[in-house]
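Deliverable D2.4 — example input (structure tokens):
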């Protein structure tokens, strides 16, 4: 039985990543079968509840206000709109709804109160609820937990070393602090990253070192392939080859045996055969639906046909962790504190980010 290890070195992970493909697949698949049902895949629906206008300069993101993309922004959705989308997702086979808002960090006030009500509403539908809202404080994490939040997503994106080549408006340590704040509650952690941003294998290994060093390790690790969107600083990056994705999934499975490895952005460019190899290598979670926030994603019906062909079954909700209780707002023990945390703003210069923000002016 595989033992969870928290002291992986970069060299050890690189050695795993570079194994002959057949050896790598055999090791990953063996560990996967020891720790998970290989024929069950968790299906999530990602819903953008507030799109565009983000003040950050993440080089991969079309929602950054400073870049000139064709993303159509929208204000925060209503609770009734979110409920309707959640019911639709449930009927299509999703067990989890992940709500994303293009914010730098959560701010106490009416909008956050509205998100808390969305969490309560979806949890009462007997679906897992995940949020990705940017940085959050410990008190805000407790308020989300009380509402019935199942998971909080906050990706590390890449290695600490390469991070400064991607983002200049917030620090890597803020991401770790947000995860630590979530860990002070009963909410599970979802944290992964993106490959194909111009990083090297050492950076991919460095990201896995950071994730695997967390104790406990994240319950879910999304592995995204960059979707190069016109107008962003990374619009000219070459697409990730399927073999890179398979290697990354397999390495993640070996390094974090208990974690659910999520096949995330970039699936539209993957064949069914390629995705099947990723499932064999240890991926056991996907995002379903026609969009991942703002980027294309395979149609739900196509995914269900693929599941049928491969003999895969969608995972039921609350299999890994019990359903959290929902505390109504009037009974909450945690109140808004009006906090103004000093999240870092490194503000170093990233030339391609500056160049992209200057286009169209």
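Example output (designed residues):
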């Amino acid at each position: 039985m595989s033992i969870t290890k928290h002291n992986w070195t970069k060299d050890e992970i690189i050695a795993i990543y570079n194994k002959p493909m057949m050896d790598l697949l055999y090791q990953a698949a063996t560990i996967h079968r020891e720790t998970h049902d290989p024929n069950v895949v968790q299906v999530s629906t990602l819903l953008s509840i507030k799109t565009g206008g983000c003040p950050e300069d993440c080089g991969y993101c079309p929602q950054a206000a400073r870049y000139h993309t064709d993303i159509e922004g929208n204000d925060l959705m209503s609770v009734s709109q979110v409920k309707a989308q959640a019911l639709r997702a449930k009927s299509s086979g999703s067990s989890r709804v992940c709500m994303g808002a293009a914010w730098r960090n959560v701010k106490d006030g009416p909008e956050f109160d509205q998100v808390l009500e969305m969490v309560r509403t979806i949890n009462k539908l007997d679906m897992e609820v995940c949020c990705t809202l940017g940085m959050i404080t410990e008190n805000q994490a407790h308020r989300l937990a009380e509402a019935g939040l199942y998971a909080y997503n906050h990706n590390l994106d890449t290695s600490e070393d390469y991070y400064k080549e991607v983002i200049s408006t917030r620090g890597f340590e803020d991401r770790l602090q947000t995860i630590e704040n979530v860990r002070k509650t009963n909410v599970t952690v979802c944290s992964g990253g993106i490959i194909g941003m111009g990083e090297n294998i050492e950076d991919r290994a460095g990201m896995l070192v950071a994730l695997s060093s967390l104790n406990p390790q994240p319950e879910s690790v999304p592995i995204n392939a960059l979707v190069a969107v016109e107008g962003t600083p990374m619009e000219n990056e070459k697409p990730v080859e399927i073999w890179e994705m398979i290697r990354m999934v397999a390495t993640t499975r070996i390094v974090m045996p208990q974690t659910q490895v999520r096949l995330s952005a970039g699936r539209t460019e993957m064949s069914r055969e390629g995705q099947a190899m990723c499932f064999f290598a240890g991926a056991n979670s996907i995002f379903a639906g026609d969009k991942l926030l703002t980027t294309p994603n395979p149609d739900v019906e196509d995914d269900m046909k693929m599941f049928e062909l491969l003999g895969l079954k969608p995972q039921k909700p609350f299999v890994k962790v019990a359903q959290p209780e929902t505390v109504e707002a009037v009974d909450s023990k945690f109140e808004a504190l009006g906090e103004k945390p000093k999240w870092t703003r490194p503000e170093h210069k990233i030339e391609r980010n500056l160049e992209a923000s200057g286009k169209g002016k």
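The longest strand covers residues 40-50.
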